Amino acid sequence: MTILRSQVLGCGAYLPSRIVTNAELAERVETSDAWITQRTGIRQRHIAAEGELTSDLSLRAAESALRNAGIEAGEVDLIVLATTTPDETFPATATRVQAGLGMTRGMAFDIQAVCSGFVYALAVADNFLRVGQARTALVIGAETFSRILNWEDRNTCVLFGDGAGALLLRAAAGDGGSHDRGVLSTHLFSDGRHHDQLYVDGGPSSTGTAGHVRMEGREVFRHAVVKLAEAVDAAIGQNGITGADIDWLVPHQANRRIIDSMGNRLHLPPEKIVLTVDRHANTSAASIPLALAEAAGDGRIQPGHLVLMEAMGGGFTWGSALVRW
Ligand code: ACO
């Protein structure tokens, strides 16, 4: 049976040039490089320059993905951009990227699922492509999370960073089997009862200000391990595979200990897990496409490889995607 699959044509990334180390943060709040490294695996993060917006980061990542794929912007029908830190309340940051790329056709909109945003955006784009409503899609995860951090709050300010990554997808015929190249499955979940454990205390309809991240870290950690296991099991179950079939785990990069627990669950050796959290920290919706671009760019991820992505974030939202690269 012939079906449409969303195949990966290329990917790209952009990180702001300014790097902030743990030692620099220790000069601002009561923390230490040792505490941050031991609890999270984070050593540094990139922070956007003043005036450098989420759309600027997104545009650089999108241009890099287009170059990588050898595709002209005019061939793109759809931009789905996952972000929690849009330039403005409206219009969607995706439309600024569309204009920046010189696109005069197609559709562009944002998705908000916080750290799960990229998996949500990938699922949405995949569905558009598989029903034939678009042929070529740019899926972007981009954040300037530094703008919604309270830099006096050591519980949160040490954890996050800024950046953007993009994936270019094109619909192509497959036979429906697990050896098809492309997105094989996506699984999305949410449970709004967990609002108070991870949220931003502002917004256009409540305070009229952007607000700051508030988090019960230990609770988020406890839920993350359970919910990510659910998302990973859903991908494995639907596709009839085992951990041994997975070439790369590309997890959302929140915390080294959460990532290790997923690796252990899948019995994956550390060398099959793409890790960027040490250098990028948690870039929310950008973390997975940044990691994909790094691992595809340095030749670790090869065409035909089976790549499992998983993420969990505010909402709570969580999910997974299995892609034959
Ligand atoms: N430096 C030094 N001490 C700190 C810091 C810091 N930056 N932050 C907190 N502490 C202190 C706390 O105040 C607490 O002190 P107390 O015992 O005197 O009250 C102590 O360290 C221990 O705090 P815990 O919360 O128990 O530390 P834990 O081992 O749980 O680590 C952490 C905290 C890193 C936040 C962890 O819970 C975590 O990673 N949770 C997941 C949060 C996350 O990833 N959020 C991102 C968004 S969701 C997502 O992407 C999955």
Helix content: 25-40%
**Can you tell me the CATH architecture of the largest domain?**
3-Layer(aba) Sandwich
Strand content: 25-35%
CATH homologous superfamily heading of the largest domain: Thiolase/Chalcone synthase
Mean pLDDT over all positions: 97
**Which strand order spans the largest sheet, edge to edge or round the barrel?**
1-7-6-4-5
The structural domain count equals 2
Strand count: 13
CATH fold field value of the largest domain: Peroxisomal Thiolase, Chain A, domain 1
Secondary structure class reads: alpha/beta
**What is the succession of H and E elements?**
EEHHEHEHEHEHEEEEHEHHHEE
> Biggest sheet, open or closed, and with what strands and sense?
5 strands, mixed
Spans with pLDDT under 50 lasting ≥5 residues?
none
- Can you tell me the CATH class of the largest domain? Alpha Beta
Which value, in Å, is the CA radius of gyration? 18 Å
The number of helical runs is 10
Please tell me what the overall shape is: globular
Q: Name the hetero compounds present.
A: acetyl coenzyme *A
Concise synopsis of the structure shown:
The chain is of the alpha/beta class and 325 residues long.
